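Weekly sync, protein design subgroup
Attendees: M.S., D.O., the rotation student, P.L. (late)

Item 1: inverse folding check
M.S. brought a backbone from last month's batch and wanted to see whether the design step gives back something sensible before we order anything. D.O. pointed out we never logged the input encoding, so this time it goes straight into the notes. C-alpha cells as presented (105 positions):
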C-alpha cells in the first residue's frame, strides 16, 4: 500500500486493477479502516492499493466526488485500466473490500 496524489494519480491508476482509499487524517472511520485496507492489500498482490488524503490533493478528490456524487469519507474506488468499475462509501472491512473486488473480476 502506498500513497497517491494529484500529480501521479492518472499514471498510477491507468493500468491493471487499482483500489484507491480516499481518506483524511481527522476522519475516525478512515483511521479505523486503515488496517482493513492493509489486510486487503496483503491478500491481493495483483491489485495496486493506494491511499489518497483528501486534504492534500483536492483536484482529483473534487473530480471523484462530483463524478460519484460523494459527500463523505472514507470512500473507495476500484479502477480497471484507468476506468472506475466499483465504488463504495463508508467504513469497509477487508472482507467487504474483497467482495467489491470479486464483483468486478
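Designed sequence read out in the meeting:
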Amino acid at each position: 500500500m502506498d500513497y497517491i496524489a494529484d500529480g501521479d494519480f492518472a499514471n498510477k491508476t491507468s493500468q491493471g486493477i487499482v483500489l484507491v482509499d480516499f481518506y483524511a487524517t481527522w476522519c475516525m472511520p478512515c483511521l479505523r479502516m486503515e488496517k482493513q485496507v492493509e489486510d486487503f492489500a496483503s491478500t491481493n498482490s495483483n491489485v495496486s492499493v493506494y491511499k489518497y488524503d483528501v486534504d492534500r490533493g483536492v483536484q482529483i478528490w473534487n473530480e471523484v466526488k462530483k463524478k460519484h456524487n460523494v459527500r463523505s469519507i472514507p470512500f473507495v474506488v476500484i479502477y480497471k485500466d484507468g476506468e472506475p468499475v466499483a465504488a463504495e462509501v463508508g467504513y469497509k472491512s477487508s472482507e467487504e473490500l474483497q467482495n467489491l473486488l470479486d464483483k468486478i473480476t
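Discussion: Residues 2-104 form a domain with the Glutaredoxin fold (CATH 3.40.30.10). The CA atoms of residues 17 and 80 lie 5 Å apart.
Action: P.L. to compare against the previous round before Friday.
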